[in-house]
Amino acid sequence: AHHLHCLNDFVEAQTTYYAQCYQYMVDLQKQLGSFPSSFSNNNQSSLSGGACISVPTIPVSASLPSVSAGHTSSAASGGFSELRSSNSSRKARVLYDYDAANSSELSLLADEVITVSSVPGMDLDWLMGERGSQKGKVPTTYLELLN
User: Fold this and answer.
1) pLDDT in tens, 94-103
2) Which domain of life is it from (predicted)?
């Protein structure tokens, strides 16, 4: 019982820490969005709407986005396999913020709607995303296909 109590305290401390980190990130996005457009680059222009971002409160029992193999296979069966076989494009809602790891990827903001399509030979965990003139790979676990 003592170990369970200590583990619960640890999880609560981690949750508080990550909520504070998220708040700092939102504050930084707001500051970057307030710079004059002459100082901002293409990536920062997508952050200019940062003032309307709300910080969620995360209960201790909340499940965080998972990139485990089990989660990927269930996401792949949720319409993604149809998209791959049809070679067409569809709209998708972004479930979580995603920061691109390199220039071939597209950064995402939660709740935005982007166009996604399949590229032959691409890893099954990724789709090609498009927002305006920006294109890049996006992880399927961060997306929900729309009708």
Assistant:
1) 999 999 999 9
2) Eukaryota
